[in-house]
């Protein structure tokens, strides 16, 4: 294995690599789900969801937490009006 490939594997195995893969899968799934009709690659979306949910599940949890925090802030701000 050459040095660049070894470094890529090392990065992939790090927490940052895990986060990036999780984010990439999550973002790609969201984009692919917007494709209309017969052009939507349902099998690819399913496979990507399987990988995300089984191996790279952190990013959806981060998004969920951000949305919940934003909703709480909105509720607080609306209560101040």
Write up this protein.
The chain has helices spanning 3-12, 15-32, 42-55, 58-80. With 81 residues, the protein is mostly helical. It has one domain (3-80). Helix 2 runs antiparallel to helix 3 (42-55). The chain is flat and about 60 Å long. The mean pLDDT is 94.
Taking all Cα atoms into account, the compactness measure Rg is 18 Å
Structural class: mainly alpha
Count of the domains? 1
Could you list the spans in which at least 5 consecutive residues all have pLDDT below 50?
none
Q: Beta-strand percentage?
A: under 5%
| Strand segment tally | 0
Largest sheet: none
Distance between the termini: 62 Å
Summarize the structure.
By secondary structure, the chain is mostly helical. It has helices at 3-12, 15-32, 42-55, 58-80.
Q: Can you tag this structure with a few keywords?
A:
mainly alpha, flat, 81 residues
Give a topology summary:
Blueprint lengths: L2 H10 L2 H18 L9 H14 L2 H23 L1
């Amino acid at each position: 294995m050459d040095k660049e490939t070894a470094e890529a594997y090392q990065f992939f195995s790090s927490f940052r690599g895990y986060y990036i893969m999780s984010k990439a899968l999550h973002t790609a799934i969201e984009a692919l789900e917007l494709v209309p009709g017969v052009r939507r690659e349902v099998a690819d979306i399913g496979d990507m969801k399987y990988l995300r949910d089984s191996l790279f599940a952190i990013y959806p949890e981060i998004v969920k937490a951000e949305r919940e925090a934003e909703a709480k802030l909105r509720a607080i701000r609306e209560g101040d009006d």
